[in-house]
Amino acid sequence: MAQPVQLFHAPTSPYVRKVMACILLRGLQGRVELIPTRPAENPGALQAANPLGKVPCLVTAEGTAIFDSPVICEYLDGLGNAQPLFPSPGPARIASLTLQALADGLCDAAVARHQSRAQQEDGAAPTPRQSAFQERQMAAIRRGLAALDAQPPQGLAEIGAVAAACALGYLDLRIPELGWRAIHPRLATWLASVEASPALARTAPPAG
Ligand SMILES: N[C@@H](CCC(=O)N[C@@H](CS)C(=O)NCC(=O)O)C(=O)O
What we know:
Layout: E1 5-9, H1 14-25, E2 32-36, H2 44-49, E3 57-59, E4 65-66, H3 69-77, H4 91-118, H5 128-150, H6 159-174, H7 180-183, H8 185-194, H9 198-201
Parallel strand pairs: 1-2
Antiparallel strand pairs: 1-3, 3-4
The structure holds glutathione.
Protein name: Glutathione S-transferase N-terminal domain-containing protein
Domain GST N-terminal: 3-84
Organism: Teichococcus vastitatis
């Protein structure tokens, strides 16, 4: 029996969710030990493994730290015998990686907006600078969603689709008022067709 790998884990992180979905899709759950982590509390073990102090970070059985989420997902694709989520080199791989980058970028903008809002004093309106920053992130999210809708993912068999599902779930968590399903019904139909799969259902973020 191979040694488990360790994963620094936080349940609301969309990047962690993507890694967890890959673990489930590839049947690796018995080989990964989850380390509950709150990056904002600067845990030493996380920072020793990932100097950037971010989750997800995976530590192999040999003690090698791997980050960030695209690299972890690619590492996981080399474990076990399940169908790979990363296509072989060529146009399909580039398309899948580009879709993953778009989805991760949606998360980056939503995380940045959420952090900016968290910096507002309790109940206070955003300063003009905060407001401009948050609107800039929202504009990126709207453009990113339009780009996703122009070439909607299909199924959940490649890393781009997995990342897109996690990004849309994160928008539901952090920006429900965006109402992206009404703007992009095609994306809503796609997500509805895959969200009951164990890889997504078992990794859904806690409410709030
Ligand atoms: N590009 C990274 C992003 C990771 C990331 O931003 N993680 C957030 C949680 S959602 C984090 O750990 N933030 C802690 C911090 O920035 O201090 C990835 O894909 O793994």
